[in-house]
Each structure stands twice: as C-alpha cells, then as structure tokens.
Specification:
The complex is a heterodimer of chains A (about 240) and B (about 475). Chain A has about 240 residues and is α/β, with parallel strands linked by helices. Chain A is built from 13 helices and eight strands. In chain A, helix 11 (about 185-200) packs across helix 12. The termini of chain B are far apart. The chains are: A alpha/beta (about 240), B alpha/beta (about 475).
C-alpha cells in the first residue's frame, strides 16, 4: 500500500474542505494510506506571484520541512503543485541547504489526477453515466506542468462524457491578487470563459484548480455548475 | 504614468465599448489562426524557434561588437550612422536633419521606435508635418490616437469608423462597406504625400551587421516609397534590432511574418544598403541610420535581458487574455500586451509604469507563442519583486501581505484568526456568499466565497 501525504492547499482547507475530503476518499479508494501533515499551511504562491519573495521563501521552507518525511505528496490543485514542483527549486535555488531539499520535494509531488491516472493507473469501482462535462485547463497545470491529458483521462475513466470548449486553456481570469487588483478585467475574462463553457452544452464545468473554481463560481450563478475534479471523481465511488 | 488604477480605468472603458471589443476579438482571432496555420506549415517550427532563441541570445551577448561591425559596413556603403542615447537626442537629431534639408513634409513608414521617442510631436513643433503612410498608422493619426497594437495599430477600429475618418479627410462621404473605394482613396492621398515629402522616416525590422543593411517589411509597399522617393531617408533602430549575418536575418524574417500575420513572408521586404549609387535610377541621396539606446542597454546582463530578444511580432498580444479584454490603450505607451509590460518599465522606468507588471494573471499563453521563447511570465515576476523592493505597491498591500504570511507561518495563530474571521463574516453572509457593500467589495460583481463552517483539518482530526 502506498503512503501518500496530502497537501490540501490553504484555499481547500479554509474555504472548500469538501474538495479535500473527496481527495482523501479517492486516494483511499485507490488503495493509498493517506497522511495529513498538520504543520502545513500555504505553499506561498500568493506571495511569490506578488513579488514578496522573503515571505514566499519562508512558507516554502515550512512546506518542505512538513513534507520531507514522506515518499509522495499529492495536491488537488494544479497551481499549488506547480509552486512546489517548478517554483520552489527556482525560489530556493541559491539557498545553501535548501536547494537540494526543494528539488527532492519537487521530484515527489504530484497533482491529484496525474497521481491517480499515471502513477496508480486508477480505475474507479463504479462509473458515472449521462453527465456531460467540459474541462477547463488551469494555466499553470497545462503550461508549466504539461498536464492536459490526466484530468481528462480521469474524468473519462470515471464515466463522464467529455466535451471540449473552444479555448479550454484560456485563462479564467483569476490570477490570485490580479482578480482583486483589476476586477473589471478579471471579471470580463471570466465571462468569456463561462460563455465558451456554456456554448458546449455541458452540464458541468470541471477544473483541477480551487482558485479557478472560486473565480468562475463567483460569476457563474445559475448558468453552469462548476466542480472540482476531485468531487466529480469521488462521485464515481458511489455512482 | 500607468499605475494599476490607470490601467484599470482605461481597461474598464475598453470593456464597456462593445464595438471595440468586437473589433479586438475579430482581429486577434484572425492573427491567432493565421499564426497557428503558418507555423504548422514549417517542417519543425519548434526547432526553428529554439534555434532562433539561441541566435538572439548569442547576438546580445556580443551586442557592441555586432553594432560596430554594422556601423563600419553601413559607412562603407555610404550611409551615415548616428548613435543616440536618449529619446530626446534622437528626436532632436532627426528634426535637425529635416530642417537641414528644408523639409516641410515627412512621410513615415510604421515605426514603434519613432512612436517611443515622440518624433511626430518633435517634428510638428519644428514645423515639419509628419504623415504616417502605413494604412493602420494613418487611420490612428487621423483619429489623433496612439497605436493599440504592435503590428495592427488600428486593430481596435471598425470599418465604419475608418470610413468616417477618411470621409472627413477627403471632404465627401465614403461608403463604409466598400473596402476597395476606401483603400483607393487612401492610396491616392498618400501618393501625393510621397511625391511632395522632403524626408522619409522609417523604422528598422532587422539590421544585418555583415553588410550594414537595414531591412524593412510591409504589406502595403509604403515602406519602399518612404525609403526611395524622398531625397533623404532616416531609419531608426533600437540597439537590439541586429543580427550578425543574412542567415540569421532569414530566420528572423521567417518567424516574424508567420508569428505576426500568419504570412510565410510579408508582401514587401525592402533591403537598404546605403544611398542610391550613381547608376541607380532612383533612391535617396542620403541615408541616415539612427541607433537608439533609450534605456535598452540597462537590460543587458540583467534579469530582463531576454526582453531584448523581442522582434515585435505581436503574437503575445493576440493570445493574451488580458490584452484581449483591455485593449492596447490601457498600456499607456506604444508597447502594449505582455511584452509591453516588460519593455515599457525598462524604457520609461518601472516607477512610471508600475501598473503594467500587475496586468497579468501569469497564464503563460505569451510564452507558448513567442518566436524567441522569451519567458515573459518570469520577467513579470521579476518586475513585481522589484516593485515590492522599491515600495511601489501601496502600503496596505505591503502590510497585508506580510501579516498574512506571518499568520500562515504559524498554524495556531491561523486557527485563531480563522475563528475570528468565521464569526465576523456572519454579518455579511447571504446564501453562503459574502456580500459586502458595493464600495468595499473588492471583486466587482463577482461573489466571494465564505470561509467553510469547518476547515478541512477539523474533519481530518475526526476521520484520520
């Protein structure tokens, strides 16, 4: 049995715990022992993206220390996974003692759908039927991690009918603090995204990123249901 | 000055302008599709981009040497070369050249560099009338507007708006639905200008060191009119617009047209190597090449050096989701879009352009399409770090970020703050969303999620 440390991400912990709960259930159903290191808080991405490097470094070091004892780290978030896997080695690259530890964490960190399909080759016990889903590629996950197929693969394995929107990798408009610094531009971007999603006739718009999810839900109202892939995939456990 | 608020305000105007949104969406979509198609036609576009990135980096590593070779060869071909450190130096020099030749009318072929040095203002102040001869540039000149796109300066205008501008210029109504009539009128009017001009001013798409030549690409032929009809031609180039050899220029031109408009090559590619020789039937008697620094050399050997690899194709603008909503005018300088957000702080100072590095979600679409694979998102992050260091972000953000990071580094404190916030938010909760009074609401019409009644870690303690 594989032992997996869950990086739940601060947004999931504080605002959308149901995504974390679904992630635990999925990993357990896929045969993993799940551990939740309680010292974890935030990966530091909001600070890094805003130019607050010392703050980002401090949180990066905390996160590295919290996850060092484990063999695999899984996060239900494309952008936080990117932070751990791509940005930590950059951020701590010239820090004696930390550069090596950052690279070690990077090498064993996975995004949830990537871990399920590519590491575990997971197939759900039951399959969902008759639900049409469009998948929104979150920017960091598809461009910096190159993960376009795993979330789609996982959704298909769970039985969902996947439909593609016109520009699945067009940014949803979140961008962390960008969404409050420039709300007009941010919301206009989200509106475009939602229009492209509803054009597909999908019942649900899925994403692997809690940030995108929060952003799109904020404007979607009754137009389209927006779900995290973890909760969609967990639905297949009891379909 | 372009602060976050300036960008926001201008962008909001563009978003509210349905006509402009339609024009922007149509034009950028056309450019995007063209680029995708044109690059797919190459045997290995990605390999060519990798090669080109290496060529650009290697050229910048020995920039001074290549520029000196260029100067020697340009002088040998009979051109005159001028080195200008600042925008003012360059504008003063070109205005003096016009005066020296008694020019009253200057024809110009699209050049962002002359836009950057405010050349038209300087010429007008010296009583020389500048006329833009690129159709798009001419349109915005008639509208008294700055360009809104690096290669499609009038991208934000509809056909109806263009017809209205041209009608005013010719003094009779022109039909908005007949592009043939509109372009024929433009051609007729501009021909008169070409013949009457005392000086022709152009930009430089690429300069070739091994022969001292400058290369100009256009789709309307106006470039060759500007550089060959008037008796004097002045070409203005940034120091970075150089390649050592024609082989490198070929890669540049192949990627430029494909990335910009989706063409295998632009319709006209003019090569200028010195003035007309005795045996030439036409051509300028004098060619002046202005080599402009204006802050560019500061980028060398800095985290922003890669920005100098840009060949101004505009591909990053066309894919940028922020540009596509905000339009080019929000950027408040000739260089809009993602690359503009890197270049403008370099040229005009990050203090003056502090809003631009913030005008991005760091989505990375620009990096996907850049022919030189310039890592724009990474440089945006660098600018943001510089802004924090130089205290260019508001005090409440600095305090807020530092406070938040401190709380997040102490899980017990986080638990306490969370409890207080969860109690506090009850005052503003409706249907599970936080509803703040309009003025205090940070996200416009977007709903904000509430803190969960129980965080994940509490669930975990019971279900581990």
């Amino acid at each position: 049995m594989q032992r997996v440390a869950l990086f739940v991400t601060c947004l999931v912990d504080q605002v959308m715990p149901e995504i974390g709960i679904a992630t635990v259930r999925l990993l357990r159903a896929a045969g993993c022992e799940v551990v939740f290191p309680e010292a974890q808080t935030c990966c530091g991405q909001p600070f890094f993206n805003s130019g607050f490097r010392p703050e980002a470094r401090r949180l990066a070091e905390r996160t590295i220390a919290a996850f060092e004892p484990f063999d695999a780290v899984v996060a239900p978030s494309g952008s936080c996974t990117t932070m751990l896997r791509v940005e930590y080695p950059h951020l701590l690259g010239d820090r004696p003692g930390w550069a090596h530890r950052a690279r070690e964490l990077a090498a064993k960190t996975y995004e949830l759908s990537e871990f399920l399909t590519q590491v575990l080759d997971w197939d759900p016990p039951r399959r969902v039927a008759g639900v049409r889903v469009a998948y929104h590629d979150s920017c960091h996950m598809c461009r910096l991690l190159g993960l376009r197929e795993p979330p789609r693969d996982a959704l298909r394995r769970a039985g969902y009918d996947l439909v593609e929107m016109q520009e699945p990798d067009r940014c949803c408009g979140f961008g962390g603090l960008f969404s409050v610094r420039m709300p007009e531009v941010s919301n206009a971007m989200t509106a475009e995204k939602l229009a492209q999603a509803t054009d597909t006739g999908a019942h649900v718009l899925a994403t692997a990123d809690p940030g995108c999810l929060m952003q799109m839900r904020g404007l979607a109202r009754e137009r389209v249901r927006i779900e995290h892939i973890a909760t969609l995939l967990a639905a297949s456990l009891e379909a | 000055m372009v602060s976050v608020d300036d960008f926001r305000r201008k962008a909001a105007e563009a978003i509210a302008d349905a006509r402009m949104q339609g024009a922007l969406e149509r034009a950028t979509a056309k450019f995007r599709e063209g680029r995708t198609r044109a690059l797919a036609e190459l045997p290995d576009a990605d390999a060519l981009r990798d090669h080109f990135k290496r060529v650009r980096a290697a050229t910048l590593a020995r920039l001074a040497e290549h520029l000196e070779t260029f100067e020697q060869n340009a002088l040998a071909a009979g051109a005159q070369v001028h080195w200008c450190e600042t925008a003012e130096d360059a504008a003063r020099l070109i205005t003096a050249l016009a005066a020296q030749h008694g020019a009253r009318l200057a024809v110009k072929s699209k050049s962002m560099t002359t836009e950057e040095i405010h050349l038209n203002h300087a010429l007008e102040a010296a009583n020389v009338q500048p006329v833009e001869t690129d159709l798009g540039e001419w349109i915005i000149q008639l509208a008294h507007e700055p360009p809104s796109h690096i290669i499609g300066p009038a991208i934000h205008k509809t056909r109806e708006q263009v017809a209205a501008l041209f009608s005013r210029e010719v003094g009779r109504p022109l039909p908005p639905d007949d592009v043939g009539v509109l372009t024929a009128e433009a051609r007729r009017l501009l021909r008169e200008k070409f013949l009457a001009a005392g000086i022709g001013i152009s930009g430089v798409n690429v300069a070739v060191a091994e022969t001292g030549s400058v290369v100009l690409v256009t789709n309307e032929g106006n470039g060759r009119m500007v550089t060959s009809v008037p008796p004097v031609h002045v070409a203005v180039m940034g120091i970075e617009k150089i390649v050592p050899t024609w082989r490198d220029a070929a890669a540049w031109l192949a990627l430029l047209a494909r990335s910009a408009t989706g063409q295998p090559m632009s319709i006209y590619t003019s090569v200028i190597t010195g003035p007309a020789r005795a045996e030439d039937p036409d051509g300028p008697r004098e060619v002046h090449i202005v080599i402009l620094d204006n802050g560019r050399s500061r980028a060398l050997a800095s985290p922003f050096e890669e920005a100098l690899q840009c060949i101004r194709c505009g591909a990053c603008l066309n894919v940028c989701p922020v540009y596509r909503e905000a339009g080019g005018h929000a950027y408040g300088n000739p260089y809009s879009g993602p690359i503009g957000a890197i270049v403008a702080p370099l040229l005009f100072g990050v203090e003056a352009m502090s809003g631009l590095p913030q005008a991005s979600t760091l989505c990375g679409a620009c990096l996907d399409v850049c022919p030189a694979r310039i890592d724009i998102p990474r440089m945006l992050l660098e600018w943001r770090a510089v802004e924090v260091e130089r205290r260019l972000v508001p005090w409440y953000e600095r305090v807020g970020e530092r406070l938040a990071a401190w709380v997040l580094a102490h899980p017990r404190l986080l638990r306490l703050v969370r409890r207080l916030a969860a109690t506090g938010q009850r005052l503003f909760l409706r249907d599970g969303q936080i509803r703040l009074p309009g003025r205090w609401h940070p996200a416009g019409e977007r709903d904000l999620p509430a803190l969960a009644s129980r965080p994940f870690r509490d669930w975990w303690r019971e279900n581990a």
